[in-house]
Design goal:
Layout: H1 4-16, H2 26-49, H3 57-100, H4 109-117, H5 121-133, H6 137-144, H7 150-153, H8 157-171, H9 177-193
Amino acid sequence: MSYTVELNTLEALLQRMPHDGIVGSKTHQTWGGFVQAGEQLKKLNSFILNPDDMLSDKANALRIEEQRTKFQAALKTASDRALTTVAELRASQLARQITAASLVENEQAAEIRAVFRGLNSSEKAAFMAQAFKTDDKPVIAALTNPATSPLLVGISGEQMRLYRTHYMDKFLPADSSVIDNMRVTSETLVKALSHI
Protein backbone atom coordinates (compact mmCIF):
# COMPACT_ATOMS: atom_id res chain seq x y z
CA MET A 1 0.00 0.00 0.00
CA SER A 2 1.47 3.34 -1.02
CA TYR A 3 0.22 6.90 -0.63
CA THR A 4 1.09 8.18 -4.10
CA VAL A 5 -2.52 9.23 -4.78
CA GLU A 6 -2.69 11.08 -1.48
CA LEU A 7 0.62 12.82 -2.23
CA ASN A 8 -0.72 13.96 -5.61
CA THR A 9 -3.92 15.19 -3.93
CA LEU A 10 -1.89 17.07 -1.35
CA GLU A 11 0.25 18.75 -3.98
CA ALA A 12 -2.80 19.74 -6.03
CA LEU A 13 -4.59 21.17 -3.00
CA LEU A 14 -1.50 23.08 -1.89
CA GLN A 15 -1.63 24.88 -5.25
CA ARG A 16 -5.12 26.13 -4.26
CA MET A 17 -4.12 27.13 -0.71
CA PRO A 18 -3.75 30.90 -0.49
CA HIS A 19 -0.31 31.98 0.62
CA ASP A 20 1.20 35.38 0.20
CA GLY A 21 4.86 34.32 0.23
CA ILE A 22 5.61 36.63 3.16
CA VAL A 23 7.60 34.54 5.62
CA GLY A 24 5.97 34.74 9.03
CA SER A 25 2.55 35.79 7.80
CA LYS A 26 -0.50 33.82 8.94
CA THR A 27 -1.24 32.46 5.47
CA HIS A 28 2.39 31.49 4.91
CA GLN A 29 2.56 29.67 8.25
CA THR A 30 -0.67 27.80 7.50
CA TRP A 31 0.51 26.81 4.03
CA GLY A 32 3.91 25.83 5.47
CA GLY A 33 2.28 23.54 8.03
CA PHE A 34 0.63 21.54 5.27
CA VAL A 35 3.91 21.48 3.32
CA GLN A 36 5.60 19.99 6.40
CA ALA A 37 2.84 17.38 6.69
CA GLY A 38 3.44 16.61 3.01
CA GLU A 39 7.14 16.08 3.67
CA GLN A 40 6.26 13.62 6.44
CA LEU A 41 3.87 11.83 4.07
CA LYS A 42 6.58 11.59 1.37
CA LYS A 43 8.91 10.03 3.90
CA LEU A 44 6.19 7.57 4.98
CA ASN A 45 5.50 6.65 1.36
CA SER A 46 9.23 6.14 0.77
CA PHE A 47 9.48 3.82 3.79
CA ILE A 48 6.56 1.78 2.45
CA LEU A 49 7.85 1.56 -1.14
CA ASN A 50 11.51 1.07 -0.22
CA PRO A 51 11.88 -1.03 2.92
CA ASP A 52 15.36 -1.07 4.42
CA ASP A 53 17.00 -4.40 3.44
CA MET A 54 19.18 -4.21 6.53
CA LEU A 55 16.12 -4.31 8.82
CA SER A 56 13.77 -7.16 9.64
CA ASP A 57 10.15 -7.03 8.49
CA LYS A 58 9.14 -6.20 12.05
CA ALA A 59 11.69 -3.37 12.27
CA ASN A 60 10.52 -1.97 8.91
CA ALA A 61 6.89 -2.14 10.09
CA LEU A 62 7.85 -0.29 13.28
CA ARG A 63 9.69 2.36 11.25
CA ILE A 64 6.61 2.82 9.05
CA GLU A 65 4.30 3.17 12.07
CA GLU A 66 6.63 5.70 13.70
CA GLN A 67 6.65 7.74 10.50
CA ARG A 68 2.86 7.45 10.22
CA THR A 69 2.61 8.89 13.75
CA LYS A 70 4.89 11.79 12.77
CA PHE A 71 2.76 12.46 9.70
CA GLN A 72 -0.48 12.38 11.71
CA ALA A 73 0.99 14.81 14.25
CA ALA A 74 2.14 17.17 11.49
CA LEU A 75 -1.30 17.02 9.84
CA LYS A 76 -3.04 17.76 13.15
CA THR A 77 -0.70 20.70 13.82
CA ALA A 78 -1.35 22.09 10.32
CA SER A 79 -5.11 21.62 10.69
CA ASP A 80 -5.17 23.32 14.10
CA ARG A 81 -3.07 26.19 12.72
CA ALA A 82 -5.45 26.58 9.78
CA LEU A 83 -8.49 26.75 12.08
CA THR A 84 -6.78 29.35 14.27
CA THR A 85 -5.65 31.38 11.27
CA VAL A 86 -9.13 31.40 9.73
CA ALA A 87 -10.63 32.57 13.05
CA GLU A 88 -7.98 35.29 13.45
CA LEU A 89 -8.38 36.51 9.88
CA ARG A 90 -12.17 36.66 10.27
CA ALA A 91 -11.84 38.64 13.53
CA SER A 92 -9.39 41.03 11.90
CA GLN A 93 -11.70 41.44 8.92
CA LEU A 94 -14.65 42.19 11.22
CA ALA A 95 -12.61 44.79 13.12
CA ARG A 96 -11.67 46.51 9.84
CA GLN A 97 -15.31 46.45 8.75
CA ILE A 98 -16.51 47.96 12.02
CA THR A 99 -13.94 50.74 11.74
CA ALA A 100 -14.83 51.39 8.10
CA ALA A 101 -18.54 51.41 8.93
CA SER A 102 -18.04 54.11 11.55
CA LEU A 103 -20.02 52.02 14.00
CA VAL A 104 -18.87 54.07 16.94
CA GLU A 105 -21.18 54.66 19.85
CA ASN A 106 -22.17 58.23 20.58
CA GLU A 107 -23.35 59.83 23.84
CA GLN A 108 -26.90 58.53 23.29
CA ALA A 109 -25.90 54.84 23.13
CA ALA A 110 -26.96 54.02 26.72
CA GLU A 111 -30.34 55.69 26.20
CA ILE A 112 -30.87 53.88 22.89
CA ARG A 113 -30.15 50.54 24.62
CA ALA A 114 -32.53 51.41 27.48
CA VAL A 115 -35.37 52.15 25.04
CA PHE A 116 -34.62 48.99 23.07
CA ARG A 117 -34.59 46.80 26.22
CA GLY A 118 -38.13 48.03 27.00
CA LEU A 119 -39.54 46.79 23.70
CA ASN A 120 -41.15 43.41 23.14
CA SER A 121 -39.72 41.00 20.55
CA SER A 122 -41.80 42.19 17.59
CA GLU A 123 -41.12 45.84 18.44
CA LYS A 124 -37.38 45.10 18.65
CA ALA A 125 -37.49 43.48 15.22
CA ALA A 126 -39.34 46.49 13.76
CA PHE A 127 -36.94 48.89 15.49
CA MET A 128 -33.90 47.13 14.01
CA ALA A 129 -35.54 46.87 10.58
CA GLN A 130 -36.10 50.63 10.60
CA ALA A 131 -32.51 51.28 11.72
CA PHE A 132 -31.18 49.12 8.87
CA LYS A 133 -33.55 50.67 6.36
CA THR A 134 -32.44 54.21 7.22
CA ASP A 135 -28.78 53.26 7.89
CA ASP A 136 -29.09 54.75 11.39
CA LYS A 137 -25.48 54.21 12.47
CA PRO A 138 -25.84 55.55 16.04
CA VAL A 139 -28.67 53.07 16.72
CA ILE A 140 -26.91 50.18 15.00
CA ALA A 141 -23.64 50.97 16.82
CA ALA A 142 -25.39 51.12 20.22
CA LEU A 143 -27.07 47.77 19.66
CA THR A 144 -24.33 45.80 17.90
CA ASN A 145 -21.05 47.04 19.39
CA PRO A 146 -18.92 43.96 20.17
CA ALA A 147 -17.73 45.61 23.40
CA THR A 148 -21.31 45.90 24.67
CA SER A 149 -22.83 43.04 26.61
CA PRO A 150 -25.96 41.59 25.00
CA LEU A 151 -27.58 41.86 28.45
CA LEU A 152 -27.32 45.66 28.23
CA VAL A 153 -29.09 45.54 24.88
CA GLY A 154 -31.76 43.04 25.90
CA ILE A 155 -31.02 40.46 23.22
CA SER A 156 -28.98 37.28 23.04
CA GLY A 157 -25.36 37.27 21.97
CA GLU A 158 -26.40 35.34 18.86
CA GLN A 159 -29.00 37.99 17.95
CA MET A 160 -26.41 40.73 18.45
CA ARG A 161 -23.94 38.90 16.21
CA LEU A 162 -26.62 38.37 13.55
CA TYR A 163 -27.58 42.07 13.57
CA ARG A 164 -23.92 43.09 13.27
CA THR A 165 -23.31 40.57 10.48
CA HIS A 166 -26.44 41.76 8.65
CA TYR A 167 -25.23 45.35 8.79
CA MET A 168 -21.74 44.45 7.59
CA ASP A 169 -23.05 42.29 4.77
CA LYS A 170 -25.52 44.93 3.65
CA PHE A 171 -23.34 48.02 3.80
CA LEU A 172 -19.78 46.74 3.84
CA PRO A 173 -19.54 43.38 2.15
CA ALA A 174 -16.13 41.91 2.75
CA ASP A 175 -14.05 39.97 0.32
CA SER A 176 -13.65 36.82 2.33
CA SER A 177 -12.66 34.65 -0.62
CA VAL A 178 -9.08 34.18 0.66
CA ILE A 179 -10.32 33.18 4.10
CA ASP A 180 -12.99 30.89 2.66
CA ASN A 181 -10.46 29.35 0.26
CA MET A 182 -8.07 28.64 3.14
CA ARG A 183 -10.85 27.09 5.23
CA VAL A 184 -12.21 24.90 2.42
CA THR A 185 -8.78 23.83 1.19
CA SER A 186 -7.51 22.94 4.65
CA GLU A 187 -10.72 21.02 5.44
CA THR A 188 -10.40 19.15 2.14
CA LEU A 189 -6.74 18.33 2.85
CA VAL A 190 -7.53 16.97 6.29
CA LYS A 191 -10.46 14.95 4.96
CA ALA A 192 -8.37 13.52 2.11
CA LEU A 193 -5.49 12.53 4.37
CA SER A 194 -7.08 11.64 7.72
CA HIS A 195 -7.43 7.94 6.87
CA ILE A 196 -3.65 7.52 6.83
